Amino acid sequence: MKRIGVLTSGGDAPGMNAAVRAVVRKGIFHDVEVYGVIGGYAGLMNGNIEKLELGSVGDIIHRGGTFLYSARSEEFKTKEGQQKGIEQLKKFGIDGLVVIGGDGSYRGAKALTEQGFPCVGVPGTIDNDIPGTEFTIGFDTALNTVIDAIDKIRDTASSHERTFVVEVMGRNAGDIALWAGLAGGAETILIPEDPHDMKDIAGRLKKGHERGKKHSIIVVAEGVMNGYEFAKKLKEETDFDTRVTVLGHVQRGGSPTAFDRVLASRLGARAVELLLEGKGGRAVGMEKNQLVDYDIIEALAKEHTLDLNLYKLSKELSI
Ligand code: ADP
Q1: C-alpha of residue 288 to centroid of ligand 1, in Å
Q2: Which atom number of ligand 1 is nearest to the Cα of residue 41?
Q3: CB 130 within 8 A of CB 285
Q4: Does residue 137 have its Cβ closer than 6 Å to ligand 1?
Q5: Contacts of 59 by beta carbon, 8 Å cutoff, 6+ apart
Q6: What stretch of H or E contains 313?
Q7: Cα 69 to ligand 1 centroid, rounded to whole Å
């Protein structure tokens, strides 16, 4: 393999730049030319592809977002779209592709691999919802953004003796809510993986209030319901003064944490190694601090599982 491509796709995540940098530098280290696809699969179909040099990825390890841009493309979900992409890759003499993104992007990588073009998936999403890895690139940074917000909300919540509902991202996964709720000392964490009981939540809040608790923070994962809807339901059960904060896209931005930069560097470099070993159709990940890789099709078939022990602990510590 003498020429490989790299693209970022789907929702952007802090650390994607660090992953691209790792792909480019690792490739060049092994005398392989690396081409960047601008604008995800849409850019791929249009042949928006350019050669990346060592200097192309200088000064980006600390930047959020993705300098290769990201996009969503319905056309790429069709076989014709995928063939268009493969034609472009062949035109540029590219023999393998690293796809950095979430599960939708993996499906694209899987489709290309099934049509004979080897791809390796690198998990990049703040949601931490990709099977085959304990952590995805961007999750830790998003978590730290949420913690920062919760700490600030706690200051105002305690000054006014209020209950705050904080809605966080995560799509159908509760990882951001769970980890941020635990690290932020939230009284209640609502995740899609576990059904909740409004009466029980209200009862816990009242109990806390009775023992002198002046304020409460409730973290709600977007996959459960939106924060305003939850606050309305809570209002039916209690008379607490409640405010809602929806953190939204701030969770996607910012300079990646050291953890995400190291994770991205390791995963990006491993993806290149796999392509060079002739192992296309893989998805890389990190388990117990060791690099792992799975067949991309098997990885997608697996279920993402939330750390239930952590969830249990969060309940024990927030009595
Ligand atoms: P993420 O990768 O963050 O999950 P999306 O689900 O939007 O984001 O997926 C990103 C892109 O991957 C889509 O816009 C589409 O071009 C491509 N994609 C998603 N699903 C498929 C599929 N089943 N087959 C081929 N390509 C897909």
Answers
A1: 28
A2: 16
A3: yes
A4: no
A5: none
A6: helix 308-317
A7: 15
What number of other Cβ atoms are within 10 A of residue 41's Cβ? 31
Q: Would the CB of 121 count as within 6 Å of ligand 1? A: no
Q: Which fold has domain 140-253?
A: Rossmann fold (3.40.50)
What 3-state DSSP class applies to 100? strand
Q: Which atom of ligand 1 is nearest to the CA of 106?
A: 2
What's the 76 CA to ligand 1 centre distance in angstroms?
A: 8
Residue 162: its pLDDT value, please?
A: 87
Report residue 148 CA to chain centroid gap: 18
The reply to whether 140-253 shares the fold of 3-138+256-300 is: yes
For 3-138+256-300, which CATH class? alpha beta
Contact 243, 201 (CB under 8 A): no
Q: What pLDDT was estimated at residue 207?
A: 87
Return the SS3 of 98. Answer: strand
Using a 6 Å cutoff on CB, does residue 85 contact ligand 1?
Answer: no
Q: Which residues of the chain have pLDDT under 70?
A: none
**Can you give the residue ranges of every domain in the chain?**
3-138+256-300, 140-253
Q: What's the Rg (C-alpha) of the chain?
A: 21
Reading the block at residue 165, the tokens are 């509902």
User: What local confidence, expressed as pLDDT, does residue 241 receive?
Assistant: 84
Type of residue at 49: I
> What's the pTM value of the predicted model, to 2 decimals?
0.96
Q: Whose CA is closest to atom 14 on ligand 1?
A: 72
Instruction: Report the nearest atom of ligand 1 relative to the CA of 102.
Output: 2
Q: Measure 136 CA to ligand 1 centroid, in angstroms.
A: 17
Torsion of CA 317, 177, 252, 54, to 10 degrees: 60
SS3 278: coil
Catalytic residues: 127
Phi-psi map region of 284: left, alpha, beta (phi>0 left; psi -120 to 50 alpha): beta
- Residue 124 Cα: closest atom of ligand 1: 3
CB 102 near ligand 1, within 6 Å: yes
Distance of CA 232 from the midpoint of ligand 1 (Å): 34
